[in-house]
Automatic annotation (TrEMBL):
PANTHER family: FERRIC ENTEROBACTIN TRANSPORT PROTEIN FEPE, TYROSINE-PROTEIN KINASE. It comes from the Bacteria. It is found in: Cell membrane. It holds the Pfam family GNVR. Belongs to the CpsC/CapA family. Signal peptide: none annotated. This is Capsular polysaccharide biosynthesis protein. Residues 2-93 form the Polysaccharide chain length determinant N-terminal domain. One of its GO terms (molecular function) is protein tyrosine kinase activity. Keywords: Cell membrane, Membrane, Transmembrane, Transmembrane helix. The chain crosses the membrane at residues 20-39, 174-194.
Length: 225
């Protein structure tokens, strides 16, 4: 029974094989054209911050300070993405972005039970991304001293320009592969939909398949000369 069903599926696909192959091919060409010629390359720069207070001679007190720093990491991550910090960076660097556009460019991550904060910035220019990442780190470091009245934020890895850096977006290979998969899904689904909507009997094979009747004869097509 399963073999019969598989044959039915293959018959439907083979019946509209041109369409099944054409749609994924068109999708791949369109995705490749967008990835190579339309979408702007995006570069990424990141800087790393460490939340850490001065070591204490008391082991018990030092452990409590580490726990406190870990608890502050999430708070600090939210402050970095705050409108106040981002607006200050936009104004200082005179960036041509709105606050909403700038916020989408910035990503702040903090691993669990860690005192490290990673700030990533994506921009069409790698140099500009490096400037923004370092400006965000510096601005936050200064604001943390003012707002929290502490000096426990250190910049341990500032962003640097890498001459060999490659764009992180768009991922051309991934985009084309996704277009191929989606194109196949659409084309195969469309083939089954057309087969379901088409109730006509076009040849003797359809008569045997759907009516389960023997074919006694076939009237051929003739053209007048």
């Amino acid at each position: 029974m399963e073999e019969l069903e598989l044959r039915e599926y293959w018959y439907i696909i083979r019946k509209r094989l041109t369409m099944v192959l054409a749609i994924p091919l068109i999708a791949m060409i369109a995705s490749g054209a967008l990835s190579f010629f339309v979408l702007k390359p995006q570069y990424e720069a990141d800087t790393t911050l460490l939340v850490n207070q001065k070591a204490s001679d008391n082991p018990s007190l030092e452990y409590q300070m580490i726990l406190a720093n870990q608890a502050l990491v999430n708070t600090y991550s939210d402050i970095i993405k705050s409108a106040t910090i981002e607006r200050a960076v936009i104004q200082n660097l005179r960036l041509p972005y709105t606050l909403a556009e700038f916020d989408k460019m910035v990503q702040v991550t903090a691993p669990d039970k860690s005192q490290v904060i990673d700030v990533k910035v994506t921009d069409p220019s790698q140099v500009e991304a490096v400037k923004i990442a370092n400006a965000l780190a510096t601005e936050f470091q200064q604001r943390a001293q003012q707002l929290m009245n502490v000096e426990n934020v250190q910049i341990i890895d500032p962003a640097v320009v890498n001459p060999d850096a490659k764009p992180v977006k768009p991922n051309k290979t991934l985009n084309i592969a996704v277009a191929l998969v989606l194109g196949l899904m659409v084309s195969i689904g469309l083939a089954f939909l057309l087969e379901y909507l088409d109730t006509r009997l076009k040849n003797e094979e359809d008569v045997r398949r759907y009516l389960n009747l023997p074919v006694l004869g076939v009237i051929g097509d003739y053209e007048e000369k």
